[in-house]
Amino acid sequence: MLHVEGIKKSFGGLMAVHEVSFQIKEGELSSIIGPNGAGKTTLFNLLTGHLRPDAGRILFKEKEITGLSPHEICRKGIGRSFQRTNIFPRLSAFDNIQVAVMSWQRKSGNIFLQAQKMLREETDEILESVGLGDKKEMTAGLLAHGDQRRLEIGIALGSHPELLLLDEPTAGMSPEESGMTVDLIQKLARERSLTVLFIEHDMNVVFKISEYIRVMHMGRIIAEGKPDEVRANAEVQRIYLAEGA
Amino acid sequence: MIIGIISALVLLGVLPAFIGPGWISLINEMFIIALAACALNLILGYCGMVSFGPAGLYAVGAYTTALLLVNTKIPFAVTLMAGPLMAGIAAIIVGWFCVRLTHVYFSLLTLAFSQIIHTIIFEWYGFTRGDDGIVNIPVPKFLASITHYYYFSLVIVCVCLLLLRMIINSPFGKTLQAIRENPNRTESIGINVRRYQLSAFVLSGFFLGVAGTLFCCFNKNVFPNYAHWMKSTEMLVVCLLGGVYYFLGPVVGSIVYMFLDKIITSYTQYWPLVLGLVILALLLFLRGGIAGFIVKGVELARPRSKS
Amino acid sequence: MTLQQLIIQLLSGISVGMVIFLIAVGLSLIFGTLRILNLAHGSLYMLGAFLCFWLSSTLSHLSGAFWWTLILAPLAVALFGGLLEAFLLRRIYTREMLDQFLFTFALILIIGDLCKLAWGVEYHMVSTPWPLNGPITIMGMGFPLYNVFLIGCGPLVFVGLWTFIHYTGLGRIIRAVTYNRDMANALGVNVPLVYTAVFMLGCWLAGLGGALVAPMSAVMLGMDMVVLIDCFIIVVIGGLGSMPGAFLGSLILGLVNAFGILVAPRLAIAFGFILMIIVLVIRPWGLMGKPE
């Protein structure tokens, strides 16, 4: 589904992403791990168009998406959540998701209809599925951190992605909440036939639900494979122990 | 809420029977400022774009109408439409450049364009009569009386406010708010943010043009200072005084501003000082403007429903 | 237009530019470190000019009164600025840009009227101080010696500021706070104090500019806004937060204005804005600024 070839990105003299290539199969639930500064978020930024690669190609469903802008990439079917909570603070939870749904349905440019009544079912459905059904009128900025992270995923779902990129979905959560979020991700992936790629630091999460893991270090993918293979990989062990990540 | 608005309209409708022409003029002027401020607030409060140059577009509307009325025999109704249309066109040009920037740079660029408009009006004596302004603008007879013009502007302002309300409540309006909250995220959900910002800027410019046109016919004169940044700051202050996150905020702001202006200038020549202190007090103690204060007061007074 | 006239015009433009540089660099410094655009900066300049007028007439019995004024007026403005920052400005650092604009705009209104209250609406003149009160001859034409002095002040202040910021301990602290406020805080730097210090420095510069300009042109209400607009143009051209940028921008604006008046007097006002637009469209962070 996603085909990344030789992606490179440097900032000034620093090579953040160094000739990264990989493929993601449809329906796969995989993760990218690595110590801080390995280039994971930069990679995501390259995939979603927030950054332009210096070299290389990205193909989604056989079509080239390199260099497209974020809003165009969203339309192609790639959704994303962010490492630092990136919601619409003063809008209600309902509105947060509705905006995404309206955009997907190409209704955002309409100035004649009343937004309040539109697309209620679909928005409610997404709210329910991320567990925020009872909080839909609450101002997003006032939600608890865990709820905000869930809302974050909900907004991404509003764009009907086929590929969902989640950047540290359990960041800042307690083990309990992380567990709930993990279950949520699995459930969503199943129900909506999503392909999911996520970045994580919490190893429990990673090894629990990933079918496939890629390890990044200093801008390169240094190991990949099924969880057991990666766990046994000496290089990976060395990096994690050495870096103390 | 609806009851409040209807009663306010009724009140405004019958007011001219009870008050003198001076007051009618004052309230008329207030409508026009309210419309200009609401037009500005479309991009300011609802889209987070701090423009320092609304006066430029306002003046384009005013001068277009003035020039057409004075120099041509084009029917009045057409000149009324021409003002906002020209303002909208100007907004497309100015906006195209400005939306490529954000924050401080956006604001400064809108200021620069507005000042250029001011300079053009000021210096192009042959066309705009420069500093002398265009005076004795002929308005149709049925609008010559103060009371008639009052009703005329009331109707137009109400229609425009209804249109603005429709825009704000539409999906487009919600998307603008999302842009205000988080432009980056909005981009990620498939919205071409720049295009939306430009559209909002043009719509805002159109309604600013309506306000300018109304004022042109109200005052029967136009002057270059309609485009000056002082006028822009007046509009900004009105919005902020009333509260930018509420639809009627700028309306409240214009009422308060006009009354403060008239009352305080009759007591002292230090109106700027008082206004400055009022603004400081508002910012420090009454965040959300006066409308915000009223809304919160109403919320506190209302018995709470079960959550 | 003879070569001499051209040179005189050029020098005139530069001297004006150098005074505006003092105000613009203060504005730029404040933006660079405190991240707010201080709209009231022009008002502080005007305050400096009024103080200069008042002090030089009050102290006129002293010899060298002007030079005393030059020391005292900027200090007074700096002190005033320090109080402003500590008691008022501090509260709005975390607010949105809109609130900050409105806040500093309110200060414009207040300071402007305070000047009006204190010194009235007429304009005041300050006489050029001895020994600078006379013309010198440049290529056969007269040119005020005072303006030459102003041309010298610009680079002098620039060098002084640059040395201060880049070669002293306090300067290093300021740079640290500018670069990464939270990191500096974590390292034990008293960030609020640094903010106050930088703000006071900016005010001192504005006050100095006002005091210096007083003998050259009339001291009157309204001079705050004229200089503010020029400052905006300069910091946009040069780059917000960049000292060399402010210097370059001031030179450019001074020259553009001086020649603009020769070439197309009626449109000269617009030249600065046109430059501003060009820079904002092509290179928004200015000639010497850094993209954010």
What does this structure look like?
- The complex is a heterotrimer of chains A (245), B (307) and C (292).
- Chain A is of the alpha/beta class and 245 residues long.
- Chain A has helices at 40-47, 70-76, 93-104, 120-129, 145-158, 175-191, 203-209, 227-232, 234-243, and strands spanning 2-11, 14-24, 29-33, 55-60, 63-64, 78-81, 163-167, 195-199, 212-217, 220-225.
- Chain A has 2 domains: 1-77 and 162-245, P-loop containing nucleotide triphosphate hydrolases (Rossmann fold, 3-Layer(aba) Sandwich); 87-160, no CATH class.
- Chain B is mostly helical and 307 residues long.
- The model of chain B has no long low-confidence stretch (mean pLDDT 89).
- Chain C has helices spanning 3-34, 41-58, 65-87, 97-119, 145-167, 169-179, 181-186, 191-213, 223-238, 243-263, 268-282, and strands at residues 135-138, 141-144.
- In chain C, a hairpin with a 2-residue loop joins strand 1 (135-138) and strand 2.
- The longest helix of chain C has 32 residues, at 3-34.
- Chains in contact: A-B, B-C.
- At the B-C interface, helix 5, helix 11 and helix 13 of B face helix 4, helix 9 and helix 11 of C.
Can you list the strand order of the major beta sheet of chain C?
Answer: 1-2
Overall shape of chain C: globular
As a percent range, the share of strand residues of chain B is: under 5%
Number of helices of chain B: 14
Descriptive key words:
heterotrimer; A: 245 residues; alpha/beta; Rossmann fold; 2 domains; 9 helices; 10 strands; globular; C: 292 residues; mainly alpha; ABC transporter involved in vitamin B12 uptake, BtuC; two-stranded antiparallel ribbon; 11 helices; 3% strand
Q: How would the blueprint of this fold be written?
A:
The complex is a heterotrimer of chains A (245), B (307) and C (292).
Chain A: E1 2-11, E2 14-24, E3 29-33, H1 40-47, E4 55-60, E5 63-64, H2 70-76, E6 78-81, H3 93-104, H4 120-129, H5 145-158, E7 163-167, H6 175-191, E8 195-199, H7 203-209, E9 212-217, E10 220-225, H8 227-232, H9 234-243
Parallel strand pairs in A: 3-8, 3-9, 6-7, 7-8
Antiparallel strand pairs in A: 1-2, 1-4, 4-5, 9-10
Helix pairs in contact in A: 3-4, 3-5, 4-5
Chain B: H1 2-14, H2 21-44, H3 54-71, H4 76-98, H5 103-123, H6 125-128, H7 146-169, H8 171-181, H9 183-188, H10 193-219, H11 229-242, H12 249-267, H13 271-285, H14 289-301
Chain C: H1 3-34, H2 41-58, H3 65-87, H4 97-119, E1 135-138, E2 141-144, H5 145-167, H6 169-179, H7 181-186, H8 191-213, H9 223-238, H10 243-263, H11 268-282
Antiparallel strand pairs in C: 1-2
